[in-house]
Each structure stands twice: as C-alpha cells, then as structure tokens.
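quick one, 560 residues, struct below
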Amino acid sequence: MTEQQLPAWADPSVSPADLDAQGVSRRGLLRRAGLFGAAFALGGAAAPAVAAPAAAAAGRGYGGEDPRLAYLVGDHHVHSVYSHDAKYTFSQQARAAARYGLDWMVFNEHSNFGHARYGAALEHKEIVKARAENPRQLIFQGLEWYIPAAEHCTVFAAPGPHEVDLLTRFELAYDGKLLGYTEGAAGAADTARNEAHAVKALQWLAEQRRTGYVDDVLVLANHPLRLGIDSPHELRAWRDAAPEIMIGMEGAPGAQGAAIPGWRGTTSIRGEYENKPSAQSWAGYPADAYLTYGGFDWATATVGGLWDAMLAEGRLFSITTNSDNHRTVFDTWKNGDWPAGQNFDSTGKLPDPVNTDTPQPGSDFWPGQFSRTHVGVTRHGYRAVMTGLREGRVWVDHGHLLDGLEVRLRREHSDGRGVTLGGRLRVRKGEKLTLNITVTSATRRNPQGILPELAHVDVIRGAVRGPASDRDSWRAPDTKVAWTKDVSGRKGTYTLRVPLTVGEDSFYIRLRGSDGNRNAAGYLGASTDPHGPIPHAPGNGDPWADTWFYTNPIFIDVVH
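---
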C-alpha cells in the first residue's frame, strides 16, 4: 500500500503559514494532546492501534485513565460511480473531502448484482489509486448492505489483501436485496428467517475478524428511522450478535440539503425523511419518528428515546453523522450516457459524469462540507480510526459548529486525565465527580460563509437499568437534561466544569449543544428536555441555520 502521510495540520514539515485557520486550530489541539510529530506518526495500517488487551481493558472498563487523544474528522457513507444511483468519480469525492478537511472516508457502494460481479473489484483498483493520489487521507472500501428485513448498513474493512474479497463474499451471501430477503412485516411468513439471516451475517463478519482473514471490520446502521423498518428488537439483536462489529448507527442521516428553501419542493425534509409508516414499518413507532429534529434522527434527538433506551442497558452504542453523498446540492454535473447495450448490471459502474454548467437535482453535501464525525485516536492510521470508533471516542457536529471538543470525567480533586467519550468509570456511592468539557469555538467561516457560534451546552443523564425486559422498548424514562450552560458569545478555548454526585444507581452522561437558533420542548416534554431540537416546516429546513453537536456517552458504574 502507498506510504501514508499525516494530514497537513498534523505534519510538522508543513508550515503554519500554509494552513487555514481551522488547520492552525487543530494543530494547537494536537500539540496540547502531546501527540504532534513522531508520537502521532507511528500509526498505520500495519501498526497496532491500541495497547495490549489487558491494559486496554484496565483503561476502558475499570475506571483507569484514558490516553490523550487527537480527533480525526471523517465520513463513513460516501457513494461514487460504483453505486447505481450516484454520480461522482472517486477523484471528485476525494478532492472534495480534502477541500472540506476530512482525514478519513469510506466509499460504501450500494449492493446489487452488477456491483458484486464486476463493480467491487473495479472499485478496489480505484481505491488503491485514490489512496496513492491522496496520501494524506485514509480511504476505506466499504459496502452499503441491504439488511435482511430492514434498512441499510455501512460495512467496511481495514485495508489488506482480503478487503474486497470479504465485502464481495458478504454481499453475495447476506445481502437482503440480492437474496430477496426483504420481507420484514410483523407476522409475515419470511420475516423471522430474514431477521435471523441478518444476525448470521454479523456473526460471519465477526468470525472473519477473529480468524484474522481481515484485520478489522465494522458495521453501522444507516438512516435508521427513515422508513421505520429498523425495529428496536432488530437493533438490539444486531448489537448483541457481534458487539465488537456492530457498533452503532447514524445519529443524523445524510441528505441534509434536502429541504433548503426553494430547492427540492414544499414537502421536503432534511435527510429525505419524507416517509409515512408502511406495512414493513415497526408499528410501535409514532408518526413523528419519521422526521428529523435539528437534522438528527428521532432515535437520537429524543431525550429518553430509542438511543437512550439502548444506553440505559449499560452498553455502548455509538452515533455518527455523514454526507451519504450521491448528488450534491447546486452541483452542475449530470450522469454520463450509457454506451449502447450497457447498463449497471452488465458493468458494475456508471459512466463518468459530465459538467452541464446548470444546477442539477440533489439533496446532499460533499463529504465534510456540512456533517462531520470526529474520532479520538492516539496515533494516525486506518486501524487507529477503527479502534476509536469501536471504543466510542466519538462526537459529531453539523455546519462546522466547533473546532474542537474534549470531554473528561474525573473523581473530584483528581489530577489524572480521567475517562472520555465511550469510557467507563467505576465509583462508589457518594463519590463526587467533575465533568470537564473543553470547547474550542469555530475559528473560521464555514463553507456557507457563516462563522458558527455555540449558544448552549447540555448534559443529559440517564440511569442504567440493565438489559431491557421488552426488546422493543424505545423509552428510557429516567433520562433527562440534567444541566445546561449558556455559552453565547464565548470564544477561543474554554472549559466548563460540571459537578456530579454518585447515588445508588449506575448511570451515563452524554452531551449536546447547538447554535440556539431553533429549539423548544423536546419530544417527550419540557420536564425531560426543556429546549431540544424540533422539526422544521416542510420545504423550509435551511440546515446552516440549525446546527447541533452530540457526543457519545460516558458510563459511570456504581460498585456496592
């Protein structure tokens, strides 16, 4: 594989004068983490991404201290000419991602027979070429899996000799669309078989990792409530089948430009969440679940809702955000014309696009233009990103709302680093803890020309009750917004200190914040969430005017 280079902001050989304001800011954050230079450059596809298992367990599961982290910005849901409904070449996507500051990205093409028979292998050659052309980017090959009886997932592997073989074998053996295993309605004859096949698929992936066929592989559920066909019991079944593989879901979908006023139409919703319940939908979801709230999926945005119900079991389930880029808003490229006698099933690849100089239909932003997933790592490299995702060291933002965010939970008066996002701290009843939230405000105008300003930071706290007795429960009644801080007008880097007292029960905390432009009582009421995200009016969802950040949880395990 081509020798990997550090991102420009992390490379000591690149002069600060050659960086933009955000690059300078990110370099400062890297220096403060003590990772600038050789300490950060040691990683790579062939290098271990974490310490020995015993040490890792001590740090992540038993209240030890997490390492200092740098955050790599990425997108795990990007399409190209190797998806039947997309448009762009690999080079176009990689250049755009570099322009908007992405450090890593996953090309996850839609499965179908043309892709499995021809496209995946052709795509891999272009992946290798793209890695060589963009040595400062980490470029993964992935697959958008049609889950039997359910929606879609991103599946991607670490670079290696079997990455494309793994994806192709998986696609042919387990894809719901290719197998005809799409039925998921309650009580239908094939639903139980199809749901079981999804579980087998994840177990198969876990086995490929366990045996070393691939170094690593991860799965994330995409746009989980778009159609309402990912039921709570399916999400739990996938997580339980292979928790080291099936690590989470999109907290916010792509297609965030779908409801720009005057663009797609008067019924358009951010994320293209424009559906109604169908026979395939899980009947327990309310009609409001099919909307986005501040651009985020209802499952994530509802305090005390489905995501919290899963976290209340005391198990990590991560969120991400991404572009799902197929067709960029206001872009002027159109699909090329097919040569006579050819189609996607016979080639596995669309013709290259053609520039028309006229805006074409689309709902998406370029990778990194609006949606960003920040992954905490101790070194640079493919496996380091995958390890960071697996361990839940993740926060997400829209509209480049923040330059940086560091969250640490410590025992009161401790001088240690404490634990961070995705971590666990073991404590005793009555102990006093301090949550330190270090915010680095935006230092440059975002791609829309707006200098983002954070208005508030919220701490959400929920009790851990153990495994759900009802596998279809989507409520976490003990979860509420526990603390809010108005930070309007604050600039630079500052730290908020939040005291936490330990009671009888284990609990978790997670963070959220926004630009303050649009909020009201949350979906489950003001006593649970006094100023949460809300849906926009159809056709009037300017995403740049309603931006949020969310973090993964930290768990606090009370030892009696």
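The first strand starts at residue 70 and ends at 78.
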